[in-house]
Design a protein that fits this description.
The chain has helices spanning 11-23, 108-121, 145-158, 172-178, 192-201, 215-227, 255-262, 271-275, 278-290, 317-333; strands spanning 2-5, 27-32, 37-42, 60-64, 84-86, 89-91, 97-101, 125-127, 162-165, 181-184, 205-208, 233-237, 267-269, 295-299. Helix 5 (192-201) packs across helix 6 (215-227). The chain is an alpha/beta fold. The strands form three sheets. It has an eight-stranded parallel beta barrel with strand order 7-8-9-10-11-12-13-14, surrounded by seven helices. Strands 2-3-1-4 form a four-stranded antiparallel sheet, covered by helices on one side. It contains ten helices and 14 strands. The radius of gyration is 21 Å and the shape is elongated. A hairpin with a 4-residue loop joins strand 2 and strand 3 (37-42). The chain folds into two domains: 2-64, Phospho-2-dehydro-3-deoxyheptonate aldolase, domain 1 (Alpha-Beta Plaits, 2-Layer Sandwich); 84-333, TIM Barrel, CATH 3.20.20. Bound molecules: phosphoenolpyruvate (PEP) and manganese (II) ion. Residues 103, 129, 133, 185-187, 208, 238, 273 line the site of phosphoenolpyruvate (PEP). Phosphoenolpyruvate is lined by residues 103, 129, 133, 185-187, 208, 238, 273.
Length: 338
């Protein structure tokens, strides 16, 4: 339910309504809009008093049901887009935010070299995996904590915030200590225990769509994180499985405007995993910006032929710099900047 409060009421009044919502057995999530404050009240409804009784409170204007199955993620509760702030970088505002770096952190020198290069080209966030979800148990599984240390070193040197994947609940806290944005990978999109855990950790979360996840399921996964009390969720389209075999996945750019229509959360696109081929990354990155993405996440490696994971889809630093130059006019054409 959305509890719409009357205009001009005090913080104490908002707190009082929140307390009443808790007494009724729901969790209150105050959302301060430009003109109005509303409170999302979520929780299991079975056997509880109807929240519409809150309309009896003097400070409450109305109580409106949310039609969509996802509640806190929906546009109904927050008509204006939300922005996610990470150490001075804002995702969901006018500038398109580019996150770039290697698929896997492989060594200190590799990650520092890439970090310098992507920063020089205009990336605002450094990506790199220390815990890698690999299809084969015999493939490189990541440097784990040592990789996190190298990423933190690269952040210290460049000032770029770091996004890295959290693979399981056991290491979630450790990953949060070293990084700025927690990435939930495509394969964990419905690992509800992990979603709740990153919801509790309170750091921004980059939530990647699963390769066989519908938009509704994707937003319900986002809802787990929001319902756990963490409003800083960034959605990421990274390609889905279809009958098409000429690319690694099918990058679903429809998802960008669809997600923007249904949700207030920022949307980022990953053209590296979405295509699987370095030469398809630039055209799809431009397409993503043109259709309204708030950001991109792109794999960059100094020597893709030597990469321990995802070399075929990784851009060399010079190609990444060229892409950044070509993206600027695309961003400007759709009222954004880079
Ligand atoms: C990655 O970002 O390197 C990755 C493993 O992505 P996804 O979870 O989208 O496959
Ligand atoms: Mn990868």
């Amino acid at each position: 339910m959305i509890i719409v409060l009357k205009s001009g009421i005090s913080e104490a009044d908002v707190d009082a309504v929140c307390r009443r919502i808790e007494e009724l057995g729901y969790r209150p999530h105050p959302i301060r809009g430009e003109f109005k404050t509303v409170i999302g009240a979520v929780g299991e409804e079975r056997g509880k008093v109807d929240l519409r009784i809150l309309e009896a409170m003097e400070t409450v204007e109305s109580v409106v049901p949310i039609q969509q199955p996802f509640k806190l993620a929906s546009r109904e509760i927050r008509p204006e887009p939300s922005e996610v702030r990470v150490n001075g970088v804002v995702i969901g505002a006018k500038p398109v935010v580019v996150m770039a770096g290697p698929c896997s952190v492989e060594s200190e020198s590799q990650v520092l070299e890439v970090a310098d290069a992507v920063k020089g080209a205009g990336a605002r966030i450094l990506r790199g995996g220390a815990y890698k979800p690999r299809t084969s148990p015999y493939a490189f599984q990541g440097l784990k904590e040592q990789g996190l240390k190298y990423l933190a070193e690269a952040r210290k040197r460049t000032g770029l915030p770091v996004v890295t994947e959290v693979l399981e609940t056991e290491s979630a806290e450790l990953v949060a200590e070293y990084s700025d944005i927690l990435q939930i990978g495509a394969r964990n999109i419905q690992n509800f225990t992990l979603l709740r855990r990153v919801g509790e950790l309170g750091k921004p979360v980059l939530l990647k769509r699963g390769m066989a996840t519908s938009i509704q399921e994707f937003l319900l996964s986002a809802e787990y994180i929001l319902a756990a009390g963490n409003p800083r969720v960034i959605l990421c389209e990274r390609g889905i499985r279809t009958f098409e075999t000429s690319t690694r996945f099918t990058l679903d750019l429809n998802a960008v405007p669809v997600l923007k229509k249904l949700s207030h959360l920022p949307v980022v696109v990953d053209p590296s995993h979405g295509t699987g081929h370095w030469d398809l990354v630039a055209p799809m990155a431009k397409g993503a910006v043109a259709c309204g993405a708030d950001g991109l996440i792109i794999e960059v490696h100094p020597r893709p032929e030597e990469a321990l994971s995802d070399g075929p889809q990784s851009l060399k630093p010079s190609k990444f710099a060229q892409l950044m130059r070509e993206l600027r006019p695309v961003a400007e054409a759709v009222g954004r900047s880079l």
